[in-house]
Amino acid sequence: MTTFLTPQQRAGRTCAAVDAAVAAGRELGLTVTDPTVLHDVFSVVVHLAPSPVVARIPTVLPHPEDLVALARRQQDELDVTRWLADQGIPVIAPSPLVPHKPVQRDGYSMTFWPFVPEDRDKEPDYVANAESVADLHAAMRAYPGRLEFLSAADPQFIAESLARLDQHPTLIGAAELDRARREWRILEPLVRSRTAFEARFPGVDLQPIHGDSPPANIFSAVDGDRYADFELVTLGPIEWDLAALGPEHNAAYNRGARRNGTRPLNEEVLGFVNALGMVRVVATLTLVPQLPELLEYLKPALDHWQTMPFAGGVNG
Predict the structure, then answer these.
(1) How do the domains of the chain map onto residue ranges?
(2) Phi-psi region of 244 (alpha: psi -120 to 50; beta: other; left: phi over 0)
(3) Residue 316 reports pLDDT greater than 70
(4) What is this structure's pTM?
(5) pLDDT on residue 1
(6) What is the percent of the chain with per-residue pLDDT over 70, rounded to a whole number?
(7) What is the DSSP string of the chain?
(8) What is the distance between the alpha carbons of residues 269 and 188, in angstroms, rounded to a whole number?
(9) DSSP string for residues in 225-250
(10) What is the pLDDT of residues 99-142, one digit of tens each?
């Protein structure tokens, strides 16, 4: 039986995250008298007003108790965004008012960012954003830090989720779960091993990438667009950042790549990352009890998955 978080429990979680961020901010020397929640989906994002600082506290997680692993990913994000900002790339970089490291408090691990006023009148142009991502990739190629191979896919989370989803028959049917498991048997070796990936896709270079659909994570600030939300930054093929976006966005990216002299998207790798992304969507169903409204966002992707080639055309 699947037990979903109640609205009261959700509100309690939000309040606890805000309280932890306020306490942590004050310990860091920030003046916080009017905390304001800006977003509350996978993370609680709270403006620690009147300080010009925003805390982001992940709350919907596969393993909320594993703060060490979470902090390691958060440190990667802080390091990459700070480095990009130093190169003159328009990103939301860590707040200069606090140390650039995750802070753990009351069972949460959080990061701190500047409060950036949003241009709420600007409509996002995802096709133009996709073209822009080629410029981001060109800049990220020179990042000197170490990143794990395709950690954004989180293969351990996928494996664990697929193993226990039969306990949640209201979330996915038996036939769909069987397909996901069979696809994963083909895809898993290529996600777990950089060597296996490079043998299957020879000549496809790997580099630091955003990790979480950057065309959808460009923040419209009043002073211009900025790349944001590098929580899943990873080493991987550029195609991962364009997964599931479709031909128009892929063509836009390739225009950007031609303009800056980098390689276009590889169709075989796109098939792989599209299939991997869909299996990860199936795995994400295990998070629905923590965030019940997530199901309505996942369902269209799951319906589309049924029309896609098995395992993206990758041979087992």
Answers:
(1) 7-114, 126-313
(2) left
(3) no
(4) 0.95
(5) 60
(6) 99
(7) ---PPPHHHHHHHHHHHHHHHHHHHHHTT--EEEEEEEEESSEEEEEEEESSEEEEEE-S-SSTT-HHHHHHHHHHHHHHHHHHHHTT--B-PPPTTS-SS-EEETTEEEEEEE---B-TTPPP-HHHHHHHHHHHHHHHTT--S---BTGGG-HHHHHHHHHHGGG-TTTS-HHHHHHHHHHHHHHHHHHH-HHHHHHHSTT---EEE--S-GGG-EEEETTEEEE---TT-EEE-GGGGGTTS-HHHHHHHHHHHHHHT-----HHHHHHHHHHHHHHHHHHGGGTTTSTTHHHHHHHHHHHHTTSPGGGG---
(8) 14
(9) EEE---TT-EEE-GGGGGTTS-HHHH
(10) 999 999 999 999 999 999 999 999 999 999 999 999 999 999 99
Q: Residue type at 214?
A: P
User: What token pair was written down for 18?
Assistant: 């805000």
The answer to whether residues 124 and 218 touch, using CB atoms and an 8 Å cutoff, is: yes
Q: Which CATH superfamily is domain 126-313 in?
A: Aminoglycoside phosphotransferase (APH), C-terminal lobe (3.90.1200.10)
pLDDT tens column, 211-239: 999 999 999 999 999 999 999 999 999 99
Class of domain 7-114: alpha beta
Cα(277)–Cα(273) distance, integer angstroms: 6
User: Residue 213: which of 145, 294, 133, 309 has the closest Cα?
Assistant: 133
